[in-house]
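Below is our example:

___
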Amino acid sequence: MEGTISTLDEILQYDAESSGSDKTPVRNEVIETLLYQRALNKIQQSIENGQTLSPFLLRSAHQILLSYGRGVNKNPGQFKTEQNYLSDGTKTHVLFTPVAPEHLQQSIDSLFSYIDNSPEIELVKVAIAHVEFEALHPFKDGNGRIGRMLITLMLWSLGLISQPHFYMSAYLEENKDLYVNIMRGVSKNNDWDSWCVFFFTAVEQQALRNLDTAEKITGLYEQMKTPFTEVLSSKWSIKVLDFVFANPIFKNNGLSKKCGFSTQNAARFSQGLLSAGLIKVVRESSGRRGAMYSFEPLLELVRV
């Protein structure tokens, strides 16, 4: 939505590299995506440790999110001190003027008072809170990413999902113009009905996609138990299978470290899976840099 485009393969390859000492250059967008996940995990831990969803936690997430890349010089972790504007694609026409900095603290406090105390149905509350947050646009940069993170955190903290792993970006990106226009309709015409219908549809469609993918992953896992067991012929077979499902792009040092066996065993297992056509080589070994492998049956299910 804000120009952060990174592929799943890039992210998983970077993650696989981070398990060893050899590093390769990576695009800023990949780092920003990983920082988003790190920020979300940090807030999840804070809430699990007894903190409540609050402006302080959002600022903490924002500080992590903008610690590298495009926003590093745009006051990470701090609310805006200058007026910002939302313009059209050509940057020549102002479409919306968010709340002024001098009124921001009062407005953000009112938003979180609504989140904490409103008797609204939970999903209605999430829908309204998202629009109100975007209308405040409280940060100099990163408002869209934090606003979508707020959706996930509210769905989780209100008990509508079991873990904060529900991402709306794909659906919102596919319907970007409608998404923006309907939010503008709230500010211009007080048309909350159209917004809520759109938001509920977005949640429903994303949930159905997630469910379909989860069911396919579960089916694939059950399907792969037999070939992994037959090919590896080891007490480690299911542990390797679990690792590959959690790390569908990997290197032998990550496999051995996570599963608790030697790098020699890891290399033997990878070679066996490769010979059986269960994994493929992403990158051959070169010098001290180890080979990288991918488990394509799973990646084909989760790539978007």
About this structure: Residues 8-167 form a domain with the Fic-like fold fold (CATH 1.10.3290.10). The beta strands are 86-87, 94-96, 249-251, 280-283, 292-294. The chain has two domains: 8-167, 213-302.
